[in-house]
Amino acid sequence: MKQVVVHPERCVGCMQCMPACATAHSRSGTLFGATLEQPLPKPRIHVGAGRFNEGFPNRCRHCDPAPCQAACLAGAINRIASTGTVMINPDRCINCASCAMACPYGVIRFHEDPLGPPNRPIAVKCDNCAGRVVKGLIPACVEICKAGALTWETVDEAMRRKNRQVSRAMSSGAAEQAAVPPGMALLQTIKKVELELSER
Predict the structure, then answer these.
(1) Residues 13-57: tens digit of each pLDDT
(2) Could you read off the pLDDT of 76-108 as tens digits, one per residue?
(3) In terms of pTM, does the model score above 0.85?
(4) DSSP string covering the chain
């Protein structure tokens, strides 16, 4: 099943995913229209600053099993079996915040939502843009991310691609051909020294 995969090493901190997400979850579906809505739509993805002020796009990982689902007293959180997406039913949410306390990623927010019951704060989190995906579109955050920090793919596809990237970068003589993934330069240097010593 496809999901939004986060590649934090690629994030440039532009935060374009946030207004794209808010717009996708607005009544109008347009950026201009969304700015005029009440309540104002809010993003379900949040870009924070990492330890070295690098951007980090934080969103729901749709855990399996989902701690938020287990903690929900009202039974408002369920998983769509066909997509693996963990969803919140806004009509059943009682705003108790049990789900937010159980979430290991801190991505569940509470506020009025343009698509939820009027004048009532509810739990809100990423829904993998289920409405867009049904129409054959990719999630708004993925579509807008030009740095490739967010991709729409299966976890297996993402892991295979990362494995190929690291393997190519670690190959002898690959420094001139491919960019080294962050944190791998030391390992590549060690491999080069080992290769030079073995050739003597």
Answers:
(1) 999 999 999 999 999 999 999 999 999 999 999 999 887 788 899
(2) 999 999 999 999 999 999 999 999 999 999 999
(3) no
(4) --EEEE-GGG-----THHHHHHHHTSSS-SHHHHHT-SSPP--SSEEEE-TTS-EEEE-----SS-HHHHH-TT--EEE-TTT--EEE-TTT-----HHHHH-TT---EEE--TTS-TT--EEE---TTHHHHHTTPPPHHHHH-SSSSEEEE-HHHHHHHHHHHHHHHHSTTGGGTSPPPTT-HHHHHHHHHHHHHHH-
List the Cα angle 26/63/7 in 5-degree steps.
Answer: 75
The tokens describing 35, both together, are 């700015």
Distance CA 52, CA 49 (A): 8
Largest CA distance in the chain: 75
Q: Which residue has the tokens 């229209």?
A: 33
